Amino acid sequence: MLNNQPVIGVATTTGCRKQADGHIRPASFYCQIAERAAEYGTQVCLFDPAQAYWKAEKMEAYFPVSKRAPYGHWSKKEVSLPSVIYENIFVHLNIRGYSDELRRQATLRGIPLFNPVLPGKWRMAEWMRSSGLDKYIPETEKLKSTEQLLDRLRHWDTVYIKPTGGYGGVGVTRVRKLGHNRFAVAWDRSQGSIAQVRKEMDERKLRDWVTTRLRRPHLLQEGINLLTIEQRKVDFRVVLQRNLQGEWKLVGIVPKWAAKDGVVTNVIAGGERVSLLQIQNAAHAEGKEISIQPMQQAAFEIARMMERKKPFIGLVGFDMGIDEKGNPLMIEMNPKPARSLLDSGMRRKAAFLAAEFAIYLNNQK
User: Fold this and answer.
1) DSSP string, 151-201
2) Rounded Cα distance, 345 and 64, in Å
């Protein structure tokens, strides 16, 4: 602590412009966190986990030069470990283990850290089933064999194959049954490539293709007749965060429009971010209505279920779909939903809630 004030340590490796004098100018998101925290007598610092000296219980971190003006320069100090940690490291770095030691040391020292490690796609499906929330997810199985895939295609006509630990739409593949011994295989993004790939295969070629996927864990999901507008599939990023009382609040709902015949709606894979009003107007032009309330209610139910299992969870984003009957479905859970999808008002709300939840966690110690 500095001056007996609790300190929120934001673990990050990005979002800061270094100045010639050694100061930094952080991204506005971090400044907004500091602004909100200051209202509650709490300081905020930014630190790279690599600059934490755990044995000495010290770290190098950046603080606002002026507590009253966090949008200005921030300077580096060597200080004691923070009261609470907001882990905000890129997903791809976490997959490589960048935050492993940070998490281990925080646990050893009793420092609350959010967000915790959240389940992959298969574990998440198990949580949904065991909590009676499986009505919100498509039929989901582990992909175990080519025979299993062919059997599900006979029953479902369309299936999706997904890597259990993937993100950003990488490797998500749609397989459709076309007719006798003919199948359409499609994906929008593969490892190292962003390009729509569309192939037609016979059963032998499909078997060979699936065999390569069996080398790593994948899921098999039933293809759902999701809402389509202008011949393009639509889903909705629903972002929730917890506040000063630990209660879930809606940050925002962001529609994502797939490209024509798109497999996923991820912007990086050819999807498009649009406003809620835009998509509602486009739906209305086709005689369709988009009801937000059931989708929002489902997201809150799932978030509360996750909170019971992971009490330090403070942020989650769901890719929610609506079928043609208006029923909500959870397509994907995002432990670190991209802020780039949010508008400026949503990002400010997200920053304020991040500060509030950190204070909440510190008060629970």
Assistant:
1) HHHHHHSEEEEEETT--TTTT-EEEEEEETTEEEEEEEEETTEEEEEEEEE
2) 23
In which element (H, E) is residue 275 found? Answer: none
Contact 156, 223 (CB under 8 A): yes
Strands 218-222 and 140-142: antiparallel
Per-residue pLDDT of the chain (365 residues; tens, 9 = 90+): 555 689 999 999 887 778 777 788 999 999 999 999 999 999 999 999 999 999 999 999 999 998 788 998 999 999 999 999 999 998 888 878 899 999 999 999 999 999 888 988 999 999 999 999 999 999 999 999 999 999 999 999 999 999 887 677 788 899 999 988 899 999 888 776 677 889 999 999 999 999 988 989 999 999 988 889 998 889 999 999 999 999 999 999 999 988 888 888 777 667 789 999 999 999 999 999 898 999 999 999 999 999 999 999 999 999 999 987 889 999 999 999 989 999 999 999 999 999 999 999 999 98
Q: Strand 193-201 vs strand 218-222: parallel, antiparallel, or unpaired? A: unpaired
Burial of 182-221, coded b for 16+ CB within 10 Å and e otherwise, reads: ebebbbbbeeeeeeeeeeebeeeebeebbeebeeebbbbb
Between vectors from CA 70 to CA 65 and to CA 73, what angle results, nearest 5°? 45
Q: Are strands 7-11 and 43-47 parallel, antiparallel or unpaired?
A: parallel
Burial per residue of 41-51, b for 16 or more beta-carbon CB atoms within 10 angstroms, e otherwise: ebbbbbbbbee
Backbone dihedral angles phi then psi of residue 278, each to the nearest 5 degrees: -60, -50
Beta pairing class for 84-87 and 7-11: parallel
Which residues are paired to 273 by β-bridges?
A: 256
Q: CB-based contacts of 254: which residues, under 8 Å, 6+ apart? A: 236, 237, 239, 273, 276, 341, 342, 346
Q: How far is CA 75 from CA 18, 21, 215, in A?
A: 10, 9, 48
Cross-sheet strand order for the sheet of 218-222: 140-142, 218-222, 158-163, 173-179, 182-190, 193-201
Dihedral over Cα of 141, 269, 314, 54: its sign: positive
Q: How far is CA 224 from CA 22, 136, 235, 259, 329, in A?
A: 53, 12, 12, 17, 9
